[in-house]
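In this supplementary section we document a worked example of the pipeline. Step one takes a protein sequence of length 248 as its only input; no multiple sequence alignment statistics are reported here. Step two produces a three-dimensional model, which step three serialises into structure tokens for compact storage. The input and output of this example are shown verbatim.
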Amino acid sequence: MLDNAPKYDRVRSFNQVAFLLDSKLPELWVPVTVPNQATLIERTQAFSFEAVKMKRCSKCGRLLSLSEFYWRRKEQRHESWCKDCFNAQCKKYRQSERGKRIAELYRQSQEYEEKRARHRETVKYKMTTAHYQQTDNYRLARRRYDTSDKGKAAKGRYERSNKGKAKTVRYLQSPKGKATRARYCETPKCKATKRSYRISFEGRVAKAKSGAKRRAAKKIDATLSAAEWKKILQAHKSRCYWCKTKLK
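The serialised model returned by step three reads:
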């Protein structure tokens, strides 16, 4: 009976069977829900797509999707371990003595410095850094580092370098720097600092040097005679009034 049926596709053959059973053998007819063609195609594609994306981890044995495995770019394939197992093994290795020693040697290499410099020039790094600097965790970490001994030493080295000095000069000459400096000069802290510096040894020497430069710029001729100069040396015991250094 079914041999003479036309050869339709899979879905239409199901409908043909139902039609023949309904018309020729009513006593054997059983109501069966036959999905349509669109539903069958959707289910087949979904099943095939999910089957391709699944992979079993060789470490823990779980069957996971490919999104749970890292991609090895050089070999063009996924890792055999899932992300959880891979991260756990990497963390264990980094905390070991051998891992710490190798990481320290790599950070001191030229390859690491070049790679780090290239990474700092990327758009991704700049966007990530700008986003992180707006968080409270960054402000707290920055404040804790600036007040530490390591942070103070690093800041001193930078301020004494040529790059740091040039940056300071540019900031003080800018409108923002001038306004900030004017506000700070009006504070009691600034006045007390200036007063203590003027009476210190460094302050007196700096004032003497500035006075000598100012007099040299005015080109004032010396009006002291030899007798007057000798009298001054005897009064100060042949020592400089400011730095107390004995004159030769």
